[in-house]
Amino acid sequence: MKPVAFDYTRPRSISAALELLDSNPNAKILAGGQTLGPMLNLRLVQPELLIDITRIPELAAVTEGDDGIGIGACVTHAAIEDGRIGEPANGYLNRVASGIAYRAVRTRGTIGGSLSHADPAADWLAALLALNGELEIVGANGTRRAALDAFVTGAMETDLGPSELVAAVRIPKRSRAIRHGYHKICRKTGEFADAIGAVAIDDKKGEFRMAAAGGSHAPIVFTDPRHLFRSADPMDADSFDIEMGGAALRDAGMNADDYDLRLRAITLQRAVHDAVQR
Amino acid sequence: MKKQGVGARLIRKEDDRYMRGRGEFVGDIRRAGMADVAFVRSPLAHARIKSVTIPEDIRANVVIAADMKSVRPITAITSLPGFKPSSQPVLADEKVRHVGELIAFCIAPTRAEAEDLVARVEVNFEERPPVHDMLQAREKDTALVHDDWGDNIFLETLVEYDMAQAEREAVIKVTREFSTARQCMSPIEGRGVVAEWDHRLEQLTIHSSTQMPHIVRSGLSECLGIDHGHIRVIAPDVGGGFGYKGILLPEEVCLSWATMHFGHPMRWLEDRRENLTASANCREHHYVLTAYADKDGKLLGLDAEATVDSGAYSSYPFSACLEAAQVASILPGVYDFPHYSCHTFSAATNKPPILPYRGVARTGVCFAMELMIDAVARELELEPTDVRLKNLVRPEQMPFENITKKHFDSGDYPEALRRAVKEIDLKAIRKRQKKGESDERLLGIGFAMYSEQAAHGTSVYAGWGIPMVPGHEQANARLTPDGGLEVRIGAHSHGQGLETTLSQVANEILAIPHDKIKVVHGDTAYTPYSTGTWGSRCMVMSGGAVAEACDQLAARTRSIAAKMLQCKPQDVTLRDGRAFGPTGELTIEEVAYVWYRRPQDLPDDVDPSGLEVTAGYKPERDSGTFSYAAHATVVAVDTSTGEVDILDYVIVEDGGVLVNPMIVDGQIYGGAAQGVGTALYEEMLFDAEAQPLASTLSDYLLPGPTEVPSIRIHHMETPSPYTRFGVKGIGEGGAIAPPAAITNAINDALKHLGAELTMSPVTPRRIVEAIAAVQEGAAA
C-alpha cells in the first residue's frame, strides 16, 4: 500500500504551522510519523498536506518552572529514555519511555504525537494520566492548558480542535516522596499493550492516582482508589483486590470483557508493587 | 588444506552479498519503461459479480477478466478417487470465493498511482452467504463454495485397520478434540513479479520470488497457452520461502499476459496486507482422536477424524488435498501400534487456498498425536516420556514399515528421547515442581517427537497424482577453462545455503577448492528441470545429482590427467585442487586448459562429451528419508494473566549425515522460531462473514527475538541407508514439534488444576479461560 499524493511542508515556527493548519482543512500534522506513516500507507488517512512540525525549536524544548516541567511535543521517546531531558518524576518517565515499542520507533516517535493520537494501548496516555499531566495546546486563539484526563474524551478521541496542536506536556511538580509505578502486559516485546496500569502514590499528602488502559478501551483514572484495597495501607500491594478493581473499571465505564478487565486490574496491582519497590 | 567437503562447518558463501545488502531480489529489479501493477481485490468472501464499472479515462489502464479471454483458469487436480477439482479464474468473472481474490488490475507508472486507479474501479456484488469455518462447510444445507459440487468437500478419505479389536482389548479409551489455527506464512520478502517480453528471443521472461521456477514455467505455459520454449522463469534472490512460494500465482499469470499484451515490462510487489489477507494460508486442522491403550500405556489403536480447511481453491501444484492425505498417512507418528482408522475431509471454505508450510501437515499431526500421548499418560498417571518409550519404534526394527506403510529408513527414536530427558533434566524439574516457584508461577515440562519424511519421490507422489510428480533430479557440472567448477541445479536456494552445501558436495568428489565452485540456480534457461525446493528434498536430491555429475566429471578429468601424467586413469587421485599420478601431479586448471585450449594434447580415446556433465539421481529407495527429533521444553505459566515464559528448550535431532552442521543448526533454530509462533502467537482469525481479522503485523503476531528461547541442539547421526553420503532431509523439522512440546509443557503445568489446552496458538486468554472453565465446572 502506498499513500495518496499529498504535499509536504516544514514550517519553522508555531505560528506558521498554525496558519497552514488553519488554511488547509485537509492537512495533517506530522511529528515522528510512527502512527501516521502506516495510516498513510494503508490509506486510512488521505490528507492533501502534511505539516512537519519537527523543526520548530519551541516544540523540542524542555522547560522547568516552579509548577513543574514542560516537555515539548516533539521530544522523542528515545530522548526521554536516554535521560537527555533529565529524570522527570524520579526517573519514571525514562522507565516508561524505555518500554515503548522498539528502539527504532522510540528514535522517531514523539510524546506529543502519542498523546494527540490518544491510543489507549500506547504507553504515555496511562503513564501521564496517573501523574495528572497537563497539555499545552496552541491554536488561533492563543495557548490553553488542558488536564490530560479532560483532553482525552475516548479511545483515540480528544478535544483537540481542527486548528490546534499540542505544543507541550506539563508534568506537575511533586514532592520527592511520591512513588510511581508502572506495569504493562503485551503479547510480545514492543507490541501495543493489552493492559496498562500506572500509579502515583504520595502517602504523606494523601494523594493516590491510578490509571488503567490497554487494548481499544478508553482509559480510566481513579483519583482515590483506597477502597479497592483490603488493607488500610495502600502500600500493601497484595491487598489490592483484583476482583473489585475489575468491577470498579467496569463501573467507571470501561466496556471490556471479563478477561480484559481482570488483566487491567492485575496491571494496577503490579503497578502498585512496582511503586512500593522504589 | 582445511576440509571443505561433506561435514565441514563452512560459513555460507551467500552471506557475503546478503550481509552487505547486495542481494538482488525482485524488488531490486529495474527495467526501462517498467510499469507498476495494483490489483482490484474482492472485499467480500462470497459474492456474485454483477458488474465492474471503470471510468472511461482509465479504461485502457485497467484489465478485467473479459480482456483476458484466452487465459485458462488455474486447475490443480489430483488422481485421488472422489477428488473434486476447482477451477480458479485468474481474474474472477462470475463469482468471488474469498476476500482478496483478484477481480481486475490497474497499470500505472508507480504503485501509488496504480492504487489511485484501483480506488476508481467499482465492483457491484450480489452477496452470498459465506462459508467461514471448515466444520460449518461439512454441514448439510451450508452455502456452496463451488455451486456445481453438491457439497463443500474437495476430498473425503477413509483408511481402517481393524479398530474393533483395539476397542475390545483396551483398558482405557481417551477422546480429545484438537485444532490448529489458520496461519499466514510470513517470509520477510513477500511475493513479487517482474514480467517482460524479449522480442529477439520471442520469450516471456519473468522474475518471480518463487521456490519452483520450472513448475511456474509449466503452469504459465498451461494458463497462457504458449510453449515452454517461449517462457523463461528466473527466481533471483528470494527472501524466504517456507512453502509460501511453492505455488503458481494468478498474479504471475496476469503480469505475464499483460507484458505480452501491452509490450512493456510490468511489476507487482506483494505488500504485507496482501500477504496477510489475500494470499494463501496454511495449517488449519481439526481433529477428533480416540486412543485405546492398555494399563501400561501401550497404544492398541487410534481412531481419528481429521478435517483440513483447504480454502476456496486447489492451489497449483500441491492441490487442496496434499495436507489431508498427509494427515491420514503420518498421524501414527513415530509409534508402533496395531490398529488405526482415519477419516479425513478436505473442506472448501470462503478463505484463501492453503499451501504446505514448513512441516506441512506434520505440525498439526504432531500437535494432535503428541498431546494425545500426554492425555493418555495423565489418564493412567504415568510419566509421558515413559508412555512414549513404550510405543516408539525401536532401533532393531529399522528399517520399519509402519501401519500406514511408511518406510522409516533408520534411526534410534528411543535414544533421542532418552537424551532429551537427560539434557532437560526431567528429574530435577519434577523436584522443582514439587517445591513450587517463588513467584507463584506454575512450572511445566513437555516433550514432543516426530519423524519427517523428506525427499519422497515418484513412488509417493504418483499415488497422489498432483500436477507435479518428482522423478530423477538432475544437476549439471562443468569445469571451466581455468579449473573452476560451475554446478547448475533446478531447485532453488532461499535460505537453505545450497550455494554452500552443494559446493561442499562437489568439493568432496572433485577436490576443487570451495571458492572456485559456483552453484547456479533459479533460472529455467540455465538449469536442468526440477520440481524445485520443497519437502526438505534438496540435499538428498540435488546433492545426490551433483555428486553423480561430479563422479562422472571426475572420471573424465582423471582420464585426461592420466595421459598427461603418463599413467592409468585409475592411478590418478584428485586432492586439494590437483590430480596426482604415481610420478607427478597437475593442477585441475592444467587439465581443464588442455580440454578447452590445447585439444591437440588430449588422449586419442578422450570422451568427446568433454568436461561438462548433466546427470540424474534418485535414491536407492525413493519413499523418503526420515529424520526425527525429540523436543523438550520447560515453561512457567502465570495463571492469573495466562502469560507463558519458555525457560528451557532442548532439541535432540537426527538428520543423518550432515553436510554442513552449522547450516543445519541454523535451519533448526529458524524452524523452531516458527514453531514457537505456531504454538503461542500466530493466528489468522476470520469472522462469520469470512473476513480476515488481521491485516498488519500488529494484529498478526510473529515471535520476535525476545520471544524465541535460547535453544540447545544435540545431534545424533544415523545415516540413511538409501541416499548418497547417508544424508537425510532436515529443513522443516524445527517447525514441527514446538507447538506440541510447548502445549504439553503448559498442560503439565496446569495438570493439578485439571485444565488442558487443545488448540493452537495457546494464547494467554485461552489459558485463563481454560482454568476458569474448570473452576466454574467445579463450582456448578
What can you tell me about this protein's structure?
The complex is a heterodimer of chains A (278) and B (780). Chain A has 278 residues and is an alpha+beta fold. Chain A has 3 domains: 7-49; 59-172, 2-Layer Sandwich (Uridine Diphospho-n-acetylenolpyruvylglucosamine Reductase, domain 3), CATH 3.30.465; 179-276, Enolase-like, domain 1. Chain A is built from 10 helices and 14 strands. Chain A has a 5-stranded antiparallel sheet. Chain A has a 4-stranded antiparallel sheet with strand order 11-12-13-14. In chain A, a hairpin with a 2-residue loop joins strand 6 and strand 7 (142-147). In chain A, helix 9 (242-251) packs across helix 10. Chain A is globular, with a radius of gyration of 19 Å. The termini of chain A are far apart. The mean pLDDT of chain A is 95. Chain B is α+β, with helices and mostly antiparallel strands and 780 residues long. Chain B has 3 domains: 15-21 and 472-617, 2-Layer Sandwich (Aldehyde Oxidoreductase, domain 4); 31-128 and 186-277, Aldehyde Oxidoreductase, domain 3 (Alpha-Beta Complex); 356-451 and 623-779, Aldehyde oxidase/xanthine dehydrogenase, molybdopterin binding domain (Aldehyde Oxidoreductase, domain 4, 2-Layer Sandwich), CATH 3.30.365.10. Chain B contains 19 helices and 29 strands. In chain B, the strands form 7 sheets. Chain B has a 7-stranded mixed sheet with strand order 3-5-1-12-9-10-11, with helices on both faces. In chain B, strands 7-15-14-13-8-29 form a 6-stranded mixed sheet, sandwiched between helices. In chain B, strands 18-26-27-28 form a 4-stranded mixed sheet, with helices on both faces. In chain B, strand 14 (299-311), helix 8 (322-330) and strand 15 (339-348) form a beta-alpha-beta unit. Chain B is globular, with a radius of gyration of 27 Å. The termini of chain B are far apart. In chain B, 56% of the residues are buried. The mean pLDDT of chain B is 97. The interface between A and B is medium-sized, with 21 and 26 residues.
